[in-house]
What does this fold into?
Amino acid sequence: MSGWRKIYYKLLNLALNFWVKSKVIPVDPLIELGLNSLCPILYVLPYYSKTELLTLRTQCLAQNLPDPLDLLEINGKLLPRYIFIARNSSKASNHCFKQESVKLFHDYLKLHHNNLKLDIQILLVSVIFGRSSDHKQYSALRLFNNIQKFLVLLWLGRDSFVCFSKKVSLRYIANNYNTDKIITYKLARIANIHFSRQRLATIGPILPIRQSLFNKLLSTKAIEKILLDEVRIKKISYKKAQQNAILLMTEIAANFSYGAIRFTDYVLRWTWNRLYQGINVHNIERVRQLAQDGHEMVYIPCHRSHMDYLLLSYVLYHQGLAPPHIAAGVNLNFWPAGPIFRRLGAFFIRRSFKGNKLYSAVFCEYLSELFTCGYSIEYFLEGGRSRTGHLLEPKTGILSITIQAMLRGSARPITLVPIYIGYEHVIEVNTYIKELHGAAKEKENLLQIIRGLLKLRNLGQGYVNFGEPLSLMTYLNHHIPQWRESINTIEAPSRPSWLTSVVNNLAIQIMVRINNAAAVNAMNLCSTALLAASCKHSLTRTQLFEQLDCYLQLLRYTIYSHYITLPNKTPQELFEHALKMNKFKLKQNNINEIIIFSPKQAMLMAYYRNNIQHLLVLPSLIASIIIHYNSITRIEILRQIKIIYSILQADFFLHYSKKDLPQILDTLFNELIRQQLIYDINNHLTVNIIRIRPLRLLAAGVREILQRYAIIFFLLSINPQITRSILERESRIIAQRLLVLHGINISESLDKAIFKTLVIKLRKENFINKNSDSIKINVILQIYHILSHLIKPEVKLIIESTRIAIKTNTTFIL
It folds into this structure.
């Protein structure tokens, strides 16, 4: 490089370093992209731009990657280390490639033909200034390209991304394809397609003009048909019917604004830094790759808190992905939150569409239009926030609309992304407990937001774990091979006969994958251990450390799923971290320091324990059975667990199938033996008395679950024809009596939905049915026989005596 050119680049670089603050995606490209430090790297950018080249250079030097401005010397030949595909951004999408770039590609391929040991790694790099999808921005300045770039840098330079894509081996291309100019043109075209997809994944499609969108929806055949029905049934004019439809569209539709996103990003960045000690993001690499490959992304997180909306959009934005349009409850559509959320991409949905065909048609057409235009979508399959920390039974309406949108012929493949969101402190948890105690749900309003903001304090760590993506097309190909016959290019396709069963099964599969991506942290581990202690939820420091170590080893050596995340800390470090959250008290006696929950705090902490209860439910059940029998064969444990596993699997969305149980249980048996919690003596698993305490605490993790099941199956065993409503009501009465008489102070005992959901799942498994011939009476009796031996005799007595009291209309005070 000549001297004057070096000076020019240095001056330009000084200005850029002042104005431009870019973020690199992925965070550690050297490792995440699998780059070989011994092989040369060639950078490929979409179009000629010195600013983008120097912005790339700054990040390359920061990431210990080769300097793009340095020349590559190969076989005594000096070649540039970077290539621009097109001359400028306006030509990049028109396949007007730079002839110098095509020639340079060809030169590199010829070098590989002549040198069989050479392997140059191509890195496709997009440098994106700003995240606005409005391509009309600065349109008046198109003829003044340099002025336009200056204004972009001035306004958006601190909101820029350098996005690296997976490496491409030129050696592989040279070995498997020709090295003539035809292949170089193909390389340029493929790179150009990639850059277009990269931009779409990062920025999103062009935002529609709101009124134009409404007019387009009004012209669809589905809405036109409903409007004609409205005219006929309600005796109103067609214009009035259209006005009603527009009012519904105005209520539903988002009003996405890039400016609002940018401003909110600054606010949230400041907020997260003050409230959270860190936001941990895991397993997003595959999701980013799918988005860059052109997939339509549908994000489906679990729902713990109102913070979920903001946190997930914030994470996606900073991971180089376009913020999604979010399905939000209409209860959030109040001033000023409604207009703000709407500008951030929220579209509002009513709790029920029942009896309102026009609303149903408008919403379905709006959501289908979002898919057709290529927007990423986010919705909560549970419908509402979990009040107990367990995943709720999925609501399948919006998932059904997603599949129907695909049947219309979506332009891009749709991929569902399950997401586990976890917190060490949920800001609404106190409100949840009040609601479980019978308090009415407080309607969301401005005053409630202000009160919530005033209470915000140290929230610990936040976790966003992306689960295994699920391709909708692949799923349908596997389960409904003939699904393509249902594709209808008409505006409103008929509902396929297979849709309901597929949607129900798909919803369960998504919930399973959410649980598979659970985040284990200090708070839910400490809560699990202390709530297992029967003596006032208290343990000494030594006992707590011992139990935490037991859980950690179980989770590390018997991996539940490759998507779960575990803390890389010792029990002592976990405790010290949890202690800073002010969730429990320390008391000093003459011998040791005791960690204790107050009764009220125990109710709150059950929420965090329930977040990971599914990970420990099987080892806890094994420990419970072994403690009860003291010595029992592996075969007998397997037999008992197989009998009750179907309900356990449905209740906790476990991913193990019944045929996998023998292998899974053997792994768990061996781990308990390795930890010396039990012995294997002549094929009998026997309690190790020396290590009885951690084994008992492990077993206690399933105690309340078994009690809940025992209540249900006792009622079914004495009256198999019992109706759902009576079963739910009597189960709650017995659970509440246990709470008072036996001190079982758990949130599930107060949750009206917990038994309702359990009864629905039992009905699906044919434990409850109007047709008495199909009821599994023998299995019900077997299950209750197993459960009645695993719960305490006094608890069993209360369950059975309470039923007698209900039956004889005996009054007892709760």
About this structure: The longest helix spans residues 181-203. The first strand starts at residue 22 and ends at 25. Residues 3-203 form one domain. The CA atoms of residues 653 and 765 lie 14 Å apart.
